[in-house]
Design goal:
single chain; about 300 residues; Alpha-Beta Plaits; alpha+beta; nine-stranded antiparallel β-sheet
Length: about 300
């Protein structure tokens, strides 16, 4: 019995010895959990191999460098030239998408403003279109910082009063921009001094109007994501900005629930809100999955250890 066990262990050792490292995956953060690779990362890597047309059942994964590097080993004859080319294309495309996701584009839509008579909203739309037509059609920037998801709630109590109140907790993420962009959201006032115009301006002051425009980060269409209900976004000027242009892009992921608070202190555990907030951010997909969650989008570099001649 002992002899059989020794022979079996010896066979397994020989089988393992026949495998060689072919890919070395470098991640933005450690991918380990406990004594081995995190299950979500393991699944993502094996699914990635399948998507590249590779038999992932032949792959063996091992981690090193404090869990930020995953070596992918295959049997000596597992990867021919076609499989090597497929893996190279697959991972290079992923890294390219990550690089492109640093690029921010603001497109200003230019067209003739509608001349048809209408109410104050039509007048506002016409004013915005006229302003857009005086701007250049494209502004670009790059992401300089990706903040962690943050919870916010409105503190409404008066100074000196310590009454507890309940407010909605909201989820948001802020991106810093290397080069500032023009503002696209405005509070509008119609010209004139009549009482009716004054009343209309009071109503207009309650809402923000956006220039005819669209935004993208890499290949991600922000306005399509807004239409799909993932988030809303707004260009803002940070307190430390050198001019009045927008140097931050804020994403709003909606309300998460009520929190009871007083003087900035809460009586509610915010942990559950933090996890829901992160889930919403990740569910929005790219570019957020390049910075949050456990997926192949957290990959930052790949080393290819292919032989010169495939067997």
């Amino acid at each position: 019995m002992n002899v059989r066990r020794i022979m079996l262990l010896g066979s397994l050792a020989l089988l393992g010895a026949c495998k060689e490292e072919r890919l070395v995956l470098h991640f933005e953060q450690p991918v380990t959990s406990g004594w081995g690779i995190d299950a979500a990362y393991e699944h993502a890597i094996l699914e990635g191999l399948k998507n590249a047309g590779i038999d992932s059942s032949q792959a063996t994964l091992s981690t090193r460098d404090s869990g930020k590097v995953v070596a992918v080993s295959f049997p000596e004859d597992a990867l021919g030239q076609q499989q090597q080319a497929s893996l190279t294309t697959y991972f290079n495309d992923m890294l390219k998408a990550r690089t492109e996701a640093q690029q921010v584009r603001l497109h200003i839509k230019q067209q003739e403003p509608e001349q048809a008579e209408g109410g104050p909203l039509s007048d506002a739309a016409r004013m915005l279109q006229e302003k857009a037509n005086k701007m250049r059609p494209l502004f670009t920037s790059r992401i300089s910082a990706f903040d962690t998801p943050r919870l916010t709630y409105q503190e409404q109590e008066k100074p000196g009063i310590r009454l507890y109140e309940s407010s909605q907790v909201r989820c948001q993420v802020t991106l810093g921009l290397e080069s500032p962009l023009p503002h696209i959201d405005y509070q509008l006032n119609l010209p004139g001094e009549s009482s009716s115009t004054s009343m209309l301006n009071q109503l207009l002051g309650l809402q923000s109007f956006r220039l005819p425009s669209s935004m993208s980060i890499g290949k991600s269409d922000l306005d399509q994501a807004v239409a799909d209900g993932h988030y809303a976004y707004k260009l803002i000027t940070s307190p430390n900005a050198r001019n009045k242009q927008a140097d931050e892009l804020v994403f709003f992921f909606g309300e998460l629930g009520d929190v009871v608070h007083s003087g900035g202190a809460t009586t509610t555990d915010l942990g559950k809100f933090e996890s829901v907030c992160l889930e919403r951010v990740i569910a929005a997909g790219r570019p957020f999955t390049f910075h949050y969650g456990n997926s192949l989008d957290r990959l930052v570099a790949v080393d290819y250890l292919f032989s010169e001649q495939a067997h």
